Amino acid sequence: MVKYPLITDSYNPYRDNVQGKANEPITVAGLLDRSKQVLGKSYEGSVPDWTLDEIYDRLENNAPRIAIIGGSSDHPAHIMDFQTSSRAAIRIWENGGVPFYFSTPVMCDGTAQSNQGMSYSLQSRNAVAQMIVNQLESHNYHGAFVIQGCDKQPLGVVSGLAHLDRLRQERGETPFIATFAPAHVLQGGTIPDDLWGELEEVAERAVAQGYSDIADDLNDAMAYILQCSSNTSFQGVFERAVAHEVMSFEEHKYFEKRLAVNTCDGAGGVCAFNGTGNSSRHIVAGFGLVHPELELLTEAPSQDVINAALDSFEVMLNKKEFGVSNLVAANIRNGIRIHSSSGGSTNLMMHIVAAMLYGGYQFSLQDLNKLHNECKIPDLFNYSLTEDRDIYQLAMQCCDSSSRGMESLFYELLQNDVPMDVHALTVEGRTWMERLEKKQGLSAENVKKNRIILSKPRRAFSGVDVLKVTSLIPLL
């Protein structure tokens, strides 16, 4: 077990003013009491010693105040937050820190796409960033353990933390450090055998009635893993089938319900397709902000894994080079090239720019495009939702040690002559070069079945190009 150093700032509002020491000890004790209760028999900590007196003394002496930042439990990615935050709180206390907890709203793009909420999707990144800065400044925390969710939350938190870190350093205070713990990957659902047979009957009925296009589209939807987006595909086919009297409206609603309730695993997680949630996972790891033990999991992280990430704070505390804004800037090429090679959500282009701007850097979409085009980025991501190569499969490969996730992709980009910033630091307390010295499970060739990260490119180039209008032709 490590022991965190005290914060070296001469400024400590908890020492210089009694209000925080009067208000906050009960919140810390409450968090730790609740954490022990949540963990129950799986609690691995020592005999509880979090008295109000001890909490007061740690605040007085400027022990690191670490915020555990969760999400909202109305999003599937955050169902297991209470277990993860409980393990984190216990470890922060054991290491000599003072744990706190708060959470941010996390809108689900899949849910919001069917209502007015989709108008708020992109804006939610800035809203999350603002809430992050407000809360961390209000209670004057030194670092964060971030339970990384889905959609716009990850880069919203990165942006807020980068901004706060820049503010702290400009004021001459200790840098703000953070490590991200991405929510585990949610296994895609499976269509029950009896339902599969019933859907095949509908396809046969459609062909018999002269609507082979409906049958083709239904079979195409059935080929995908079951998830909210494939449910939408089914819904479109069902509506056409009802309109052409291939099925009744009652059949439509029956099939819709059967598919919906078999879609998501009860333990939640980030959906297995390579959308905003998982492409955010890849790029935040590329920024060096994710401890490798936490990057790609199939279930909520164990105490040992969380310990590994939080123990690294011992190395990072009080050191400017580990401040969030500095890590993002040092790894900006790495993040862009990992995103280019692995594909995924194109709206990450905007969020990458935002993270740099929030961190105090002059950076534009054209700057991103320039870095993207400095060299040819090969397509090294053999992802498929119909051929058993989704992100859940990648997580399984990482859990059985045959792959190292973004470390493996980083390595294979180097092997394909893509210049990567190997000397950039990461939240493990080491550079990428130091991390890659361990060869076990590093090469893509270690995976023998359903290989997702490749050593030989599918295509010679990959990524998103930024287009711009160079001239306007006047209308006659």
Short characterization:
This protein is mainly α and 476 residues long. 48% of the residues lie in helices and 5% in strands. It has helices spanning 13-16, 18-23, 25-39, 52-60, 81-94, 109-112, 121-139, 153-170, 193-208, 212-222, 228-243, 249-261, 276-286, 303-311, 313-316, 324-330, 332-342, 348-358, 365-372, 391-399, 406-415, 432-436, and strands spanning 65-70, 98-103, 143-148, 177-182.
Defining key terms:
four-stranded parallel beta sheet; mainly alpha; 48% helix; 476 residues
Could you please describe the fold and organization of this structure?
- The chain is mainly alpha-helical.
- The chain folds into two domains: 13-187 and 269-372, no CATH class; 193-261.
- It has 22 helices and four strands.
- It has helices at 13-16, 18-23, 25-39, 52-60, 81-94, 109-112, 121-139, 153-170, 193-208, 212-222, 228-243, 249-261, 276-286, 303-311, 313-316, 324-330, 332-342, 348-358, 365-372, 391-399, 406-415, 432-436; strands at 65-70, 98-103, 143-148, 177-182.
- It has a four-stranded parallel beta sheet, sandwiched between helices.
- Strand 1, helix 5 (81-94) and strand 2 form a beta-alpha-beta unit.
- The model has no long low-confidence stretch (mean pLDDT 95).
